[in-house]
Amino acid sequence: MKKPSKTEAKKEIKEFFSNIKDKTPKQIKKIKKLAMKNNIALGNLRKKFCKKCFFPYKNPKIRIKNNTKSVTCENCGYVVRWRIK
Ligand SMILES: [Zn+2]
Fold first, then answer.
1. Cα of 3 to ligand 1 centre, how many Å?
2. Residue 1's pLDDT is what?
């Protein structure tokens, strides 16, 4: 099997995240592995799924306080906090 190039991997990742809500945690784990293997930074795309259980955020609980946004995963309850610039 031909190894996909970095450009192809990037395209695949972009397409994957355009309908992230239909994906399963297993598929997300796989695409993350693909990104890592090709040294592709996911950047903001990482914020589209729970880093603990890889469940795509569909309707997460979002709270904003003191320039920090906290998002609670609706699947496992894991809270992640991001700085808002
Ligand atoms: Zn989770």
1. 31
2. 56
Which chain residues have CB less than 5 Å from ligand 1, an ion? 50, 52-53, 55, 73, 75-76, 78
- Alpha-carbon distance of 68 to 47, in angstroms, equals 14
Ligand 1 centroid distance, CA of 57 (Å): 8
How many CB atoms sit inside 10 A of residue 72's CB? Answer: 16
Greater pLDDT, 33 or 85: 33
Burial class (CB in 10 A: 0-12, 13-18, 19+), 50: buried
Mean pLDDT confidence for 26-46: 96
Give 5 Cα–ligand 1 centroid separation in angstroms: 31
Res 52: pLDDT? 96
Distance 10 CA to ligand 1 centre (A): 25
pLDDT band at 4 (very low <50, low <70, confident <90, very high): low
